[in-house]
RNA sequence: GGUCCGCUAGCUCAGCUGGAUAGAGCAACUGCCUUCUAAGCAGUAGGUCUUAGGUUCGAAUCCUAAGCGGAUCACCA
């Protein structure tokens, strides 16, 4: 029996007997008691004074007295300024813990038969992944896990933006300046190599613009007339016409990028159930655009370009096909969405994990899909997250202030290594064990740092702070797990194996033990909340609180010096559940926990 | 200019379905390792919750306006 529900029912009954007033159990709001007062649950009397026809203070006193006499769970109470603080019996806490200890998959919901699709990552294939992608990938992957924990069947997908003017830019630069360079010939990671040519393009492009401007051309026109830019445009057109030479180069260079991405995804610990490629969805989008013209939902301008008019929705007109027939970003997103709902007809929701600078884009996309008559358009949701800023300001790829994903992850692992070596606690580890530990710690620290913040908010990435191993960090939580693991190893050696009835005669609990049980009881609620709001930060915050609670207990109470066998077994059981919960909650964030560190 | 988002301790963030004296971490200062891992624990100090109105028994939380910062309004993705 859930503690909160028992209390709600008892309070409801009390209102009926004491005040002859009807108050439904599920309408009763209880809040956690502030730590400066005695008790665990607080009933705020003000809103109910109307029902009790007594002032809040009086209501609280009558209610408290009645509960102590009639409720099995209430031991004591105090009323402070209209707040009724309830102290529960230790038996109640032990009972609640027994249920948790016994639970099959505590905190997780059984399958609910619903399917959702979540998209994340979705990089362009013209440059390597960076810090912003890390937030995106960790967020999307974590939300997927959290939704699974809430009983959904989840499909993790991404759309790889493998075609378009951006990749053509890299291709042109490689044709002009590449001299046949390949990842094999230069030893460069494929995505880095292609990214270098994207930068090269931009440098040359700027030079050409400057030259044209010098000759008296307006900047805007120079941007369109620069020869290298025109070459990129030509390549795009040739690509859409599937000219073999261009198509092959495109395939080769994308192949290099995919090889590079694979390595990065593997390090990140992120994966996908299905990949969509823009190159194979944009044609469907084109068809839709043309069909839309026939249906009269879209219109064509004199130059042949296709547009949608959303002015009646408070938005603007939006281009869907260029005059030369080539498609834009929006075109392929229409095709992709349709394809996905065709592939997975049962999905009840599609979540797009994409930065908040694209809010307008998705707003428009969903409206277009609705206009085309797709009823599922309203089930599309843009999980919009904030930018990652650096202490030096915004990341700008063209100014070289981008934090590369591979470099950053490596740096985190290196730092974990240095810090661990300094402490010297795992000097007996084999090389492989040590390497694994450094990766668990370094990647964990990074993931936690990026996930503990509300995704909707923009956040500051301070490299100094991100590699901190104290305080509200993954290593702190991982350390707590390692400590518990040491205790459980010892308990195992001593043959202490608590079961459901091992602590039936336990007659008193310490405050820190009650605190842990209270926090554990919150876990299912937190998993649900994190799922409803697509907020891994709820889990991050929770698991930190749990670790803190355990560390206080660890510091205050000795386990193995305890003579009372019931108390000893209870503490082992409590430690077991905390370790499992830490492990599972961190798992929802994609963070592993070591048994020694 | 229109639309949207943010503003809480020196810094980074919780709290936001209205509840008590607004919480953590970092940084600073003070204690605690012959005891299950000190990557820890306990404590001190640090706040007109951007401002002004309003609703309410009660507002960091809801409403209105202003200020500051950001995003967006591309034949870029």
Key attributes of the depicted protein:
597 residues, alpha/beta, Gyrase A, domain 2, Isoleucyl-tRNA Synthetase, Domain 1, 5-stranded parallel beta sheet, 4-stranded antiparallel beta sheet, 11% strand
Major beta sheet, strand line-up? 7-6-5-11-12
What is the approximate shape?
A: globular
Residue share in β-strands: 5-15%
Q: Could you name the ranges where pLDDT drops below 50 across 5 or more consecutive residues?
A: none
CATH architecture of the domain at 405-588: Orthogonal Bundle
Overall residue-averaged pLDDT value: 93
Number of helices: 21
List the helices and strands and how they pair.
Elements: H1 3-19, E1 30-32, E2 41-44, H2 49-52, H3 56-70, E3 74-80, E4 83-88, H4 90-102, E5 115-119, H5 131-149, E6 153-160, H6 165-177, H7 183-186, H8 190-214, H9 219-225, H10 227-240, H11 244-268, E7 274-277, H12 278-295, E8 298-300, E9 306-309, E10 317-321, H13 329-343, E11 347-355, H14 359-371, E12 380-385, E13 388-389, H15 405-423, H16 431-451, E14 459-460, H17 463-466, H18 474-493, H19 511-533, H20 536-556, H21 565-588
Helix pairs in contact: 1-3, 4-19, 5-19, 6-8, 6-10, 8-9, 8-11, 12-13, 13-14, 15-16, 18-20, 18-21, 19-20, 19-21, 20-21
The chain binds one RNA strand of 77 nucleotides through β10, α14, α15, β14 and α18.
Please characterize this protein's 3D structure.
The protein is α/β, with parallel strands linked by helices. The protein contains 21 helices and 14 strands. It has helices at about 5-20, 50, 55-70, 90-100, 130-150, 165-175, 185, 190-215, 220-225, 225-240, 245-270, 280-295, 330-345, 360-370, 405-425, 430-450, 465, 475-495, 510-535, 535-555, 565-590; strands spanning about 30, 40-45, 75-80, 85-90, 115-120, 155-160, 275, 300, 305-310, 315-320, 345-355, 380-385, 390, 460. The strands form four sheets. A five-stranded parallel β-sheet has the order 7-6-5-11-12. The chain has a four-stranded antiparallel β-sheet with strand order 1-2-4-3. Strands 8-9-10 form a three-stranded antiparallel β-sheet. A hairpin with a 5-residue loop joins strand 8 (about 300) and strand 9 (about 305-310). Helix 4 packs across helix 19, helix 6 (about 165-175) packs across helix 8 (about 190-215) and helix 6 packs across helix 10. The mean pLDDT is about 95. It binds one RNA strand of 77 nucleotides through strand 10, helix 14, helix 15, strand 14 and helix 18.
